[in-house]
Structures are given as C-alpha cells and as structure tokens.
Design brief:
By secondary structure, this protein is α+β, with helices and mostly antiparallel strands. 51% of the residues lie in helices and 15% in strands. The strands form 3 sheets. Strands 16-18-17-19-15-14-20 form a 7-stranded mixed beta sheet. Strands 3-4-9-6-8-7 form a 6-stranded mixed beta barrel. Strand 1 and strand 2 form a beta hairpin. The longest helix is centred in the middle third of the chain and has 38 residues. It starts with a helix and ends with a helix.
Length: 893
C-alpha cells in the first residue's frame, strides 16, 4: 500500500487541467479527479493513469473553460501601430527600401515563374476524375543472350484479353497515332490523327464543348479541337461537316461529331484530330490484330474502385500463359501496369507516343528558383542588419520607455512582413509582365492563377518569407544592450558576427555555383550543336515526300515515295543554287530510325538500324568512307544487292575482319554484298553512342532475313539538298514554285537539317536559357547583397575610416580594408563550390554519351567574375566612404 501512495497522477494531464479550467472550478475538479485516481491506483496503476487522462478530458467543457482575455484588441491595435511605424521607417529609408523590395521582388518573380513551370510538369494528367485508377500497360520480353525488349506500346489483342480475363478491369482504351492526308484536291494536308477506342472520353476527363456528347466516336466520326475546327472550317459551324481522310488506297469521309478544347500543355495526349479505331481493318492488318509479338498502340486500363495494382498484376502470368501457352517459357513474357500520373517524369520506362520528360531538369529548375529566392531573402537579412547600428538609438529609446524584447521583435518583424508583402505584389506584376517571354523560352503556356487558393498561397509565402528574412535582424536589434547603445556601440555578440559571415559565405557560394553551373551547361550545349557529327549539316534542306495514291503496305509506300522523290529531284536539279541532291528514308535530326533484329549463324540475336537511300546519300552529306567504295549510280547491281555499313556495324558483325565483299551473318537474308564501310557518324542524338547501321538502296534482301522490325520516324522518303544561294530565305520561294508545279494537291513540308538537330537538344537549350537568366538574376541579387554587406562594414568602421583619413589614408587604402573583410569569405565560398559544382554537373553530364570535361577553367572564370563583382561594389563604397568628412565620422563618439 505504501508503494501505491507514492504514485502521482500524470503530469501533462494535470498541467492541461490547470491550463483550461476556470479558477473557481479548479480546486473542486482537481479534488474529484485526484480522489478517483487514488482509489484506482490501488487496483492498477496503469489503468488509473489512463482513466485520469479520460477524467481530465471529460471535464473539458465550454462551461469549465477559461474566458479569453480581452487583450486581443490591444494586440490588434499594437500590430496596426507597428505597421504604421514600419511604413514610416521604410518611407524614410528610401534607398534601403528600394534595394530590399527590388531584391525580393526579382527573386519572387523568378520563383513564381519557375514554380508554375514545375507545377505544370509534375501535374501531367492529374486532372482526370479517375486518374488514380488509370494505368498504362507495359511488356518485357526476355529471351536471354541480350535479347531483352521493353515496350510501353502493346499488342492489339491485349485489351480484349484483359477485359475478359481480369474481373478487376473496368475498361480498357487504346491510343495510337498515324500520319494521313486530310482534305480534297489542293487542300490536302498531312496531319497526325489519333486512333482511339470508342470509350476514350469515358475513361479520360476531356471536356466536349459541343456536338454528340453521348457517343462522339462512332465508326465514321471524327472529333476536332477548337483550333483545328477553325483551321478547316473557319467561322462556319463544324459539327455535321465532312472531312476526307486518305487511309492507304481508300478515301474515307468522316463526319465531324464533336468539338473539344485545345489540349492543355500538362497532358501527354496531344491530339487535334481523333477518330475511332472500331473498324480495325482501316488501320491494322489482320495479322497485327491477332499477333501478340507485334506492338502498336498504347493500352490504358481503368481498374475498378478499391483495386490494388499488385492484385491485378499478380493475375497477369496466368493470363499470359493461357493465351500464349507453348510459345513462351516461364518468365519470357512479363506484363505490368504503370500509373498514368507516373508516366511523364519516369524515364525508367521507354517512351512511346506519350511523351516522357527528364525529371532532372525539373529538379534543376526547381532548385534554381528556390536558390534565387533564398539569395533575395539573405539580401534583406544582410541589408537590415547593416542598418542596425543606425537604429541603435531608436532601440535604446524604446527600451528606456519600457519596450519589452518581444514587442521589439514584433515591431521589426512587422517591417519585414510589410516589405515582403510589397515585394510580392511587385514580383507578381513583374512575373505577369515577363510571362510571355518565359512561355516562349520554356515552350509552355502557363498562366498565373488568380483565385482564392492562389491568394492564400501568396499570403502564406509572404508570412513565411517575411518571418524568415526578418527574424535574424529582429533578434539582433532587440538584443542590443542599453549600456552599449549609450556608449555608442552595438554589442550584437560574437554569435551575430559568425552568423553574418556564414550568410556571406553562403550567398557567395550560391552565386559561384550558379555561374559555374550555367557555364558548364552552355559549354555542353555548344558542344552538342557544334561538334563534328560526321556529315554535312550546314545549309542542308530536306522536304517530305508522299506515297502515291493506292500504295498498299509500308514497303510499297516507301518505294512509291522514292519514285516521287526522283520527280522532284529532276525539277530541283535545274537550279544552280541546289547541289548535292539525294533521297533517304530517314533524315538526321529525327529519332527512331528503323531498327531490325535477326539471329546470326551462331543463333545469337543481333540488332541494327537500316536506312534506305538513293546512290547519292553518302556523297550528298559528305560522309567519309574508310573501306571499300560508295554506291555507283551507274551500276544496276548496286541498286539491287549492294549495301554499306558503318564502323560500328563492321566491328559488331565481323570484329577485326575486313567486311568488304561479305554478307550480313544471317541465313535468311536475300542476296546482298557489303561494298563499303563508312566512318561512324552520329545519325542519332549525342546522348547515345553510334550504333550499327546498314545503308541500302533496296531493303528487300535485308527484310527477308529479319525477325523484328520497329521504327518511330515515319519512313516515307525525304529529298535533301545543299542550298548555295546568297540567302537561305530564298529556299522557301524556290521550293514553293517547284512543289506547286509537281504536286499541287499535296502540302509542302520542308526544314533545315541543322534546325532539326537543334530540336533534338531542345530540352537542354531550354534549361540552359532559363538557368542563364536565373544566373544573371542571381548576380544582380548578389550585387544587392554585397551592397548591403559593404554598408554594414562601412557603418561599423566609421570611426576607423575617419581616423585613417586624418592620418592621410587614400581611397585605395580604405578599399583594401573592405576587401579584407570579404576576401576570406569569397575564397572559402570558392573552395567549397568546386567539389559541389563538379559533382552535380558531372551527374548531369552522365546522361550524354558525348560530353565535355568539367575543367578548372570554368571555376576560375566563375571565381574571377565573383571577385570582380565584389570589387565593383566595394570600390563604389570605398570612394564614397573616403569622401566623408572625418569630423562627422569622429563626431559619432
């Protein structure tokens, strides 16, 4: 019994009771709950403590709760007065106010714009009502010996099989794209058309503006976006009108059934013309409709509510085994699901029609936006601290008349919040003004939202940034000792000096890092765009051909495209400014050249790329031969049987042996002979190494021996030539004249090869531009920061500078004093930035097969620029301080 008497009620519960309970009830309630506790503790101490908590909560009633004191009105009045005083102080110190507001406003504008871009990138297709239940299928075939195929496109039989075999699947929908001629007569245009399942608008939440809302995708219906409705029908009502589409040898009249808004930028379904794939025979062969090893569309799956992804995937092996049976061994064909919201920024899955972005670029831009804002915040902190000495007397007077530390802190926080609020308003206006330019640079269509949620977010940002930037100066000012103020000093303590120096180092570190990183990105982009890719690209023009009407099958379309290419080449050959004419199935700057696979004589699976050309491809692009010879236009055997391979293919297929005169190492290939080997040239992006390539004038002997064929770049031929005219602007007029004479009913599509190559590095160029602008902004903000820091040093050394001037010190001597204050911090920031920048930029460069090395020159340039920046700001203040009358400086005492 004596042991139990020593057990006390839980301390937290007792304190909570004393906190909320009215004083007139507290003694009585405490007596009751303590008495109950003493009774229960004899039976079970643990149970007694638990029930004591319950008793305390049970008495937490409105009648027992203390009334809130009426001091709120005083607090509100005090806050109002604080903001009035803050406004007067800011108006009086106009220079500092402009620097503070300008610095934070610039940082805030940069932060807002980059935040909106990042928000767009991470919000891809998150607006669909059932988005959390939509998945895309993926498949992986692994046959060993390097025969691994990973697809996010899928075979056509997959969708109906999923619906029949998996009860948890509510619906499936297919999405595929193709290029077709749209229109009649002279108005035919080559358009990208989406072929989707009838339930596409039931699965995805895209708005239907007008037309058939219930069933917009009938067998002969087409849905248009607003811009395409305007493009084809102008101001006329488009619904009910007819569009003619050339599908192979058949012309199909589609009825415009509905109009949808233009697709938003944050969706992977960039469609302008949508038709139903209900009539599969129009788009796919009978074999493709039944083949499990031919991939085509993307298959999206809508799962039933409360269905786990793992539960569905666990049933896939049995389903695959039931449909493929003996065609595969266990583990050779794996099927899975990828959440819709995960597709855009997940490069671990291969890209298909749905675009996949680089998440690293999103992280880079998000970090840059945050760093710029942090630099702006540091600026306010340093500038405010720099003014603390000037306000020492104000603090002393406030303390003499009875001001408490908390009141002083709130007073100075009010100033920082007011400045942040003004800066945020200016930043929003600045961001709105710069939005069109940013959209152009980033290739986006973002808008600055103005709604209750956005206003609330801006309010939270103002509070957070205002408190974060003002808390340090507020504590510095409120901690000033009254006796030190009376003596004319400003004892902020040693810790204040250490933190201030840390802020200096951190800000200089960020500046050097952004300068170095921007220089590395610029160098890599210049390397990508200006490196020797192994072929001529300057002033090289290409134009797309069309296959002849009635051409059935992809290979017949390719052959008829080459026939049309010969017609246009004959016309262009009449112009002296057109040289190096040729035709090719693929052109540089377009990814996804035809890929083929086969089993060699050792039963090992091998892959290579194929491009079908005319005999002038090598000479036209100036590609170097390293063995054998080029195609001879006068030799008929070259047109039928001869092929060229690149160095990578020679090493891949034959090792160190001479491949000239040999054949590709496969039994099923038709009659062909390797007549030459080209030097490796980068027909793909410099992100990847040069892969094996076969160049042929006749693809039939090669296609006879393959077991696998894929291509992402449309293989209908292109005519290319070098334009040697005085101005490249003359190309369009020349081509329009020739094209109108030759193919008046088709759309002319042409481009420059070097422009196509630039598009391959569009993401890198976009990030580099934004990073470059952010770097300039950071330098500007850093200048404001150094200005504040210099003001701080000058203010703390007023008497020293005055005495030195009396003794004959020159402006250079004063500048040396100021340089010594920042030289160590700059050197420390420079040393710390080198390993950080080197590591981060090497991580970024690892995505490129061909890349620059991060050398010491980059760091030297960034260090020198930072030093010159510091010197410029210091020189201004050194000259200004040297002109101050020493009498006024010494009068401070």
């Amino acid at each position: 019994m004596s042991i139990n008497r020593k057990i006390s009620p839980p301390r937290l519960a007792r304190r909570f009771l004393q906190l909320y309970c009215k004083s007139e009830f507290l003694e009585e309630i405490e007596g009751d709950v303590f008495e109950l506790f003493e009774r229960r503790v004899e039976e079970s101490p643990a149970k007694a403590k638990l029930l004591f908590h319950w008793d305390v909560l049970r008495f937490f009633r409105l009648s027992n709760i203390k009334q809130i004191k009426k001091s709120n009105s005083n607090f509100i009045q005090m806050t109002r007065n604080n903001f009035k005083i803050a406004a007067r102080v800011l108006w009086k110190q106009k220079t500092n106010t402009v620097l503070n507001v300008g610095s934070i406003a610039i940082g805030m504008a940069c932060f807002i714009l980059i935040s909106l871009y990042v928000k767009q990138e991470v919000s891809f297709d998150k607006f669909h009502e059932n988005g959390d239940r939509i998945y895309r299928t993926w498949s992986e075939e692994d046959y060993g010996e390097g025969q691994r195929f990973f697809y996010t496109s899928s075979p056509l039989p997959l969708a109906p099989t999923l619906e029949e075999s998996i009860p948890e699947v509510e619906a499936t929908t297919l999405v595929d794209y193709g290029n077709y001629l749209v229109g009649e007569g002279e108005n035919r245009l080559n358009e990208r058309i989406a072929m989707v399942s009838n339930n596409f608008f039931d699965v995805f939440s895209f708005e239907l503006l007008k037309g058939n809302q219930a069933n917009p995708l009938g067998r002969s219906d087409i849905v248009l976006t607003e811009s395409y409705a305007l493009k084809y029908f102008g101001s006329d009502e488009p619904v009910g009108k007819t569009l003619t589409v050339q599908l192979g040898s058949e012309k199909v009249n589609y009825n415009v059934s509905a109009i949808i808004p233009d697709m938003p930028k944050n969706t992977g379904f960039q469609m302008n013309m949508i038709v139903s794939n209900e009539d599969m025979e129009r788009f796919y062969s009978a074999r493709a409709q039944q083949a499990w090893f031919n991939i085509g569309p993307e298959t999206f799956v809508l799962l039933k509510e409360n269905t786990a992804q793992d539960a569905v995937e666990s049933k896939f092996p049995a389903m695959i085994n039931s449909v493929l049976g003996d065609d595969i061994e266990e583990g050779q064909y794996v099927l899975g699901l990828q959440p819709l919201e995960d597709i855009h920024l997940n490069p671990d899955f291969p890209a298909s029609a749905y675009p996949v972005g680089n998440p690293n670029y999103v992280y880079v831009l998000a970090t840059i936006g945050l760093l710029v804002l942090v630099m702006a915040c540091i600026n306010y902190t340093t500038l405010s601290t720099g003014q603390s000495i000037r306000r020492a007397k104000e603090v002393g007077i406030r303390k003499v008349v009875g001001a408490q530390k908390g009141g002083l802190i709130w007073q100075y926080l009010s100033e920082s919040i007011l400045i942040t609020a003004c800066a945020t308003l200016v930043g929003i206006v600045l961001a709105y003004t710069l939005l069109p330019t940013f959209n152009h640079l980033a290739g986006t269509q973002i808008e600055i939202p103005v709604d209750a949620q956005s206003i609330a977010v801006y309010g939270l940002i103002v509070l957070f940034v205002g408190i974060a930037t003002g808390i340090y100066p507020a504590f510095v000012l409120s901690n000033l000792k009254l006796i030190a103020i009376i003596r004319g000093g400003s004892s902020g303590g040693r810790g204040v000096g250490v933190l201030r120096k840390a802020l200096i180092v951190f800000q200089l570190l960020l500046t050097i890092f952004l300068i170095s990183g921007s220089l590395v990105m610029k160098q890599q982009l210049n390397f990508l765009q200006n490196s020797d890719v192994g072929y001529e690209k300057e002033a090289m023009v290409y134009l797309n051909m069309y296959s002849k009407d009635g051409s059935e099958g992809i290979f017949r379309q390719i052959d008829s495209g080459f026939e049309n290419a010969e017609i246009i080449k004959a016309k262009l050959n009449q112009y002296p400014e057109v040289t190096d004419l040729g035709a090719t199935m693929h052109i540089f700057g377009t990814p996804g050249w035809t890929t083929m696979g086969f089993r060699d004589l050792n039963d090992q699976f091998r892959q290579f790329h194929l491009v079908q050309t005319d005999p002038y491809f090598i000479s036209g692009f100036g590609i170097e031969m390293v063995a054998g010879r080029d195609f001879d236009p006068n030799l008929e055997i070259d047109k039928r049987e001869s092929i060229l391979i690149n160095e990578s293919a020679a090493e891949y297929f034959f090792g160190t042996e001479d491949p000239v005169g040999k054949k590709l190492p496969g039994e099923e290939f038709g009659k062909h002979t390797i007549i030459g080997v080209t030097k490796d040239f980068n027909f793909q992006s410099l992100h990847t190494q040069v892969e094996p390539l076969v160049i042929s004038q006749n693809s039939e002997p090669i296609t006879q021996g393959i077991s696998d064929l894929t291509f992402d770049s449309y293989p209908i031929p292109k005519v290319f030539f070098k334009y040697t005219g005085e101005s490249l602007l003359g190309v369009q007029a020349l081509l329009e004249n020739v094209w109108a004479e030759t193919f008046p009913n088709e759309e002319l599509v042409f481009d420059f090869v070097d422009e196509r190559l630039k598009l391959m590095y569009e993401d890198e160029a976009r990030v580099n531009k934004i990073a470059g602008i952010a770097t300039i902004i950071s330098i500007l903000i850093a200048s404001f920061g150094l200005l504040g820091l210099t003001i701080l040093v000058v203010n703390t050394k007023v008497k020293e500078i005055g005495i030195r001037k009396v003794l004959g010190a020159s402006p250079m001597t004063i500048m040396n004093i100021l340089v010594r204050q920042f030289g160590v911090q700059l050197l420390l920031a420079f040393v710390i930035s080198i390993p950080i920048t080197w590591y981060i930029m090497n991580q970024w460069l690892s995505d490129f097969a061909y890349r620059i090395d991060v050398g010491i020159v980059v760091f030297l340039i960034s260090g020198v620029l930072s030093f010159l920046l510091m010197l410029t700001v210091i020189a201004y203040h050194a000259i200004r301080a040297s002109r101050i009358n020493p009498v006024k400086a010494l009068r401070v005492e």
